[in-house]
User: Fold this.
Amino acid sequence: MGVKAFTCWLDERGYRTRKDARFGVATTHGILTNRVYVGEWVFNRRCSKTLAEKPKAEQISISVPAIIDHAEFEAV
Assistant:
């Protein structure tokens, strides 16, 4: 099942976002690819003014508690 089909599946079954809106493809994709769920978070990834991505040398990787198994995340 692709991201668009999964988004339709969520909406057909009445699932809504925190703001009680329907899910969009971009929102669903962002959730499914967010590495923080497997315990990987990157601080200082983008410039706050331009939103341009900073060089890898300036980014700081932080370990956070994982809520999903790494293998299951990669399978999705």
